[in-house]
């Protein structure tokens, strides 16, 4: 198990190094000068040059890359061109919204998908299975921003149970914060729950067809007992993969939902930074999100080893 974990850590470090090079290179080839953009078309050349010097844009690409990477290793993500505050402060503020939102949506998705997928697999081919498959197909096909607008129309405009957008801050109380995140979390969770339910159903059906399940049934176990004692554990391996990918998506890919509900999260920060050409914010936040994705993948790999003992011997 230790050898397996160390090999995954080495892979994680190499992936982060490659990602940092790609992100920095992509950001650097974007046309336009951030200093000229900030000062406007009529800015004097010497003023633009002074601002470029202040922003650290005059050094070589190699020196700027090393400064950026070494700064991130020490927790210094640089200074935002637009807000004139450390990027780390902006990230910490926005994580207070994006991280609970992603966790809330993942919890809702899992709570819906696992029992639904298990229920459909146990009744394969029946009316319940067909209804679940139809509902999940609809959930996959419909974009989450459409779900978001529908939820706002019904629960905010018509019923008035929730606000249509905005976030009061956690200082306004835990319940107020959770209430503000409920509609966005549901909008994010429904399509993910549809995907996860289908994966759970397929994995469980495949596992139920194995010889050891038939042997367990021949020894007198009911279908429910065979599922709980033998099939469910092995069916969780592909489910863990989807759960890891979903958390990464929910953390990094909620840009549209955060803009629909006017939530001050990381997705909205990236969107604003792109429109304002605040490149240091874009590359630092994207790198942070890549790090989160890779770490989640590492945790999922360890979960594989915990579920499947064969991996511990590698």
From TrEMBL:
Transmembrane stretches, start-end: 101-122, 143-162, 174-197, 235-257, 285-307
Extract one GO cellular component term from the record. plasma membrane
Keywords in UniProt for this one? Cell membrane, Membrane, Transmembrane, Transmembrane helix, Transport
Q: What is its main location?
A: membrane
Q: Which CDD domains match?
A: TM_PBP2
The record, for Pfam families, names: BPD_transp_1 (PF00528), BPD_transp_1_N (PF19300)
Domain ABC transmembrane type-1 residue range list: 95-300
Leader peptide range in chain numbering: none
Instruction: Give the top-rank taxon of the lineage listed in the UniProt record for this protein.
Output: Bacteria
* Compartments it resides in: Cell membrane
User: Which molecular function GO terms apply here?
Assistant: dipeptide transmembrane transporter activity
Q: How does it sit in the membrane?
A: Multi-pass membrane protein
Q: Which family does it belong to?
A: Belongs to the binding-protein-dependent transport system permease family.
Protein name as annotated: Peptide/nickel transport system permease protein
């Amino acid at each position: 198990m230790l050898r397996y974990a160390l090999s995954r850590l080495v892979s994680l470090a190499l992936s982060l190094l490659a990602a940092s090079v790609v992100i920095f290179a992509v950001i650097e080839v974007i046309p336009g000068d951030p200093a000229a953009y900030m000062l406007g078309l009529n800015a004097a050349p010497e003023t633009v040059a002074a601002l470029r010097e202040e922003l650290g844009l005059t050094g070589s690409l190699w020196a700027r890359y090393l400064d950026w990477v070494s700064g991130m290793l020490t927790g210094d993500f640089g200074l935002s061109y637009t807000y004139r505050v450390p990027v780390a402060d902006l990230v910490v503020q926005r994580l207070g919204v994006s991280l609970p939102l992603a966790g809330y949506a993942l919890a809702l998705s899992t709570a819906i998908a696992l029992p639904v997928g298990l229920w459909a697999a146990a009744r394969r081919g029946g009316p319940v299975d067909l209804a679940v498959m139809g509902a999940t197909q609809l959930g996959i096909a419909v974009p989450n921003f459409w779900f978001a607008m529908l939820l706002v129309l019904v629960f905010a405009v018509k019923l008035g149970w929730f606000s249509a957008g905005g976030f009061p801050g956690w200082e306004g109380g835990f319940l107020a914060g959770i209430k503000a995140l409920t509609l966005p979390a549901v909008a994010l969770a429904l399509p993910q729950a549809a995907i996860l339910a289908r994966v759970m159903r397929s994995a469980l059906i495949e596992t139920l067809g194995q010889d050891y399940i038939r042997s367990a049934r021949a020894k007198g176990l009911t279908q429910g007992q065979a599922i709980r004692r033998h099939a469910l554990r092995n069916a969780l391996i592909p489910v863990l993969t989807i759960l890891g990918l979903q958390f990464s998506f929910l953390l990094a890919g909620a840009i549209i939902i955060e803009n629909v509900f006017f939530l001050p999260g990381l997705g909205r920060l990236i969107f604003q930074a792109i429109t304002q050409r605040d490149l240091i914010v874009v590359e630092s936040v994207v790198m942070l999100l890549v790090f989160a994705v890779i770490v989640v993948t590492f945790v999922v790999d360890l979960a594989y080893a915990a579920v499947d003992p064969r991996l511990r011997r590698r």
